[in-house]
TrEMBL record:
Species of origin: Candidatus Protofrankia californiensis
Keywords (A to Z) from UniProt: Membrane, Transmembrane, Transmembrane helix
Membrane spanning stretches: 20-46
Membrane found in the keyword field: yes
Protein name: Putative membrane protein
Length: 105
């Protein structure tokens, strides 16, 4: 790297500008690589069953078809006696409620 000096011998004039340009270039390259890696990871993550489940939960919550915190909602309904848990299955305790929800379009 050559140093350009002023006529008065005040020291390097363009050295900080060159450092700034190389730093911006390196930051741009790093940001591009990191962004592409993030997009690639997102695509691979959405290809798995967990990724699709997470996307579906976000979509349903966004459109008001499911509570955003589904497990907290189910635990609260269980504590209030509305739901019972049989293994990994949640069931409504009251037959009238089951029939009413089953008949909805």
């Amino acid at each position: 790297m050559t140093r350009l000096t002023s006529d008065l011998g005040a020291g390097p004039v363009f050295e900080p500008v060159a450092g700034l340009a190389s730093g911006l270039g390196a930051g741009l390259v790093f940001g591009l690589v990191a962004g592409l890696a993030g997009v690639f990871g997102l695509v691979l993550g959405l290809d798995s069953a967990w990724g699709r489940l997470g996307l579906a939960r976000l979509w349903l919550a966004w459109h008001g078809h499911q509570p955003p915190r589904l497990m907290a909602f189910l635990a609260d309904a269980h504590e209030r006696g509305i739901l019972r848990q049989a293994g990994a299955v949640w069931e409504f305790r009251h037959a009238n409620l089951q029939r009413r929800l089953a008949n909805r379009p």
